[in-house]
Design brief:
With 297 residues, this protein is an alpha/beta fold. The chain is 41% helix and 16% strand. The chain binds guanine.
């Protein structure tokens, strides 16, 4: 194995420390405490785990954490009323509505009801448009985390060929915008792409975000390329039990790549770290204070 293993877990801890230090300074110098509200509708077990983790890390960073857990049968009108209340609350700087929402709700309508300045997920249509036009926005957490890892590992990304595999609104599309913003030549590949191995072989940077376990093979990777694996897939082990794997086949990719993120311990921990960073950024912007350095796009 030749590749450097990019330590996302360690880097995320550094991001959380930076956030905590900035939060402490905000409190000391301005009497301000950033506040994050997380709204969970229904009982999806994976979502419950995420929400618990978000709440815990928010408090550890010195910020205020509020959780609203609503019954799966809650009406869309009641959810919109809660969002309106959080939009108007000056102690809340970030609002996150955990997805997926129950089937009877219109996800786009709900997300677009959040004040764009408090949209720490960066999913509001205004933030999508601002990012797409290179203006200051709230940036989706997972792609922001990938960008931080890439900048930390590679320094300047200018002129590099980047291939993003996956075209989701949460990861693929914003990731492509961020890479373009850092002057990469960007290709977005997806399930209908012809000759994906050949497309990937051109890339200095490969971001795998397709949700297919171990799909990206080492034979597809240009020697020395950087592989960022966003996938988190649980698979059965031959000897019984399960384990987590990414969208890249780690062992074969690590033979060829210059650097690669592991699963777990790569991109995963960066998502919540960036959520904390976005909440801090939103609080600074709401109060016309300088934004934290190195924690935004
Ligand atoms: N569900 C899975 N990932 C996410 C995310 O990044 N944000 C929200 N709000 N819900 C999610």
């Amino acid at each position: 194995m030749g590749a450097t293993i990019i330590d996302g877990k360690g880097f995320a801890a550094t991001v959380r420390e930076k956030v905590a230090a900035h939060v402490a300074a905000l409190q000391r110098d301005h009497g301000l405490t950033p506040g994050l509200a997380v709204v969970l509708v229904g009982e999806d077990p994976a979502s419950q785990v995420y929400v618990r983790s978000k709440g815990k890390q928010t408090v550890e960073a010195g910020m205020k954490s509020v959780e609203h857990k609503l019954d799966a049968a809650t009406s869309e009108a009641d959810l919109l009323a809660l969002i309106a209340q959080l939009n108007a609350d000056p102690t809340i700087h970030g609002i996150l509505v955990q997805l997926p929402l129950p089937k009877h709700m219109n996800e786009a309508l709900v997300i677009n009801a959040i004040d764009p300045a408090k949209d720490v997920d960066g999913f509001h249509i205004s933030n999508v448009g601002l990012l797409g036009t290179g203006q200051k926005s709230m940036v989706p957490c997972t792609p922001l985390g990938c960008l931080m890892l890439l900048r930390d590992h590679l320094g300047s990304l200018s002129g590099l060929d980047a291939v993003v595999i996956g075209r989701s609104n949460i990861v693929g599309k914003p990731m492509a915008q961020l890479l373009l913003g850092d002057s990469c030549t960007v290709t977005i590949a997806h399930s209908r792409t012809r000759d994906l191995p050949e497309v990937v072989r051109r890339a200095d940077i490969v971001v795998a975000a397709v949700g297919r376990p171990q799909m990206v093979q080492g034979s597809w990777i240009k020697p020395g390329a950087t592989v960022i694996d966003v996938g988190i897939n649980r698979i059965e082990k031959p000897e019984g039990g399960t384990r987590l794997v990414g969208d890249a086949d780690f062992d074969s990719c690590a033979e060829v790549a210059g650097a690669i993120t592991p699963v777990p311990g790569g991109v995963g921990p960066m998502t919540i770290a960036c959520l904390l960073a976005n909440t801090l950024t939103a609080c600074c912007r709401a109060n016309d204070l300088p934004e934290p350095e190195g924690l935004t796009a």
